[in-house]
Amino acid sequence: MRIDVISLFPEFVDACAGFGVVGRARERGLLSMHGWNPRDYAEGNYRRVDDRPFGGGPGMVMLVDPLRAAIAAAREADPQPAHVVYLSPQGRLLDQARVRELAALPRMILLCGRYEGVDERLITAEVDEELSIGDYVLSGGELPAAVLVDAVARLREGVLNDAESATQDSFEADAAIEGGVLLDCPHYTRPPRHALGDVPEVLLGGNHAEIARWRRMQALGRTLERRPDLVDETRLSPADRKLLAGYRAGPAGKPGA
Ligand code: 4FV
């Protein structure tokens, strides 16, 4: 996969995507990233990339032409068609389902805004999709771009090794449920006994069916407790309804019981 980043601080996203599985994916050529700074395409001695908003109001707005030239340069750098994503609070809220779809693309161009945002005419002309990482305001689109790169890269074939496999993650395939997605179950590792508590016996018993059942019970219980918006309880299967009842029935179902 190729990802081009349009940003006044291209080294920012490049740095964020230089560690761990994403960094390794780049070393192994499973992901390539390229930064384009609109200031390199700005006219005049001051190489302006922003100006005051028409209609007044606080802050500055990013100019059309430097961004348009930077996007054009990124497009021309590779013959593959690019899906252009503008990271902004006005975008659709990013979720794992959309991440999975984007991870299947050969190429993306990520547009990172600064100041109050980007001139609307540039968005209309060049942007295929607006995505938000959450209902809060950041000082720039670089962090959201880095979030998107990380979420997409780890789903690319060969990026995660078996131990790191994504399938068991929250919101992932194994966490799929009739009418929703599940949060992850609790995780434990050595030591089995600790001053802070013991690892649930079921996890030490080696009975994989029992372990899978306990993990699904935990995922169900915690999801309904913490994110009831993620699951439509009325659509649970009889088996999951029984598991949930077990979780709610008391300590037996609770972690560390
Ligand atoms: C944002 C978000 C975000 C808004 C103005 C950058 C900032 C500044 N992007 N999800 N939340 N962007 O806050 O994606 O230009």
Automatic annotation (TrEMBL):
Keywords: Cytoplasm, Methyltransferase, S-adenosyl-L-methionine, Transferase, tRNA processing. Pfam families: tRNA_m1G_MT. Its main location: cytoplasm. Residues 1-232 form the tRNA methyltransferase TRMD/TRM10-type domain. Transmembrane segments: none annotated. It is found in: Cytoplasm. This is tRNA (guanine-N(1)-)-methyltransferase. It comes from Luteimonas yindakuii.
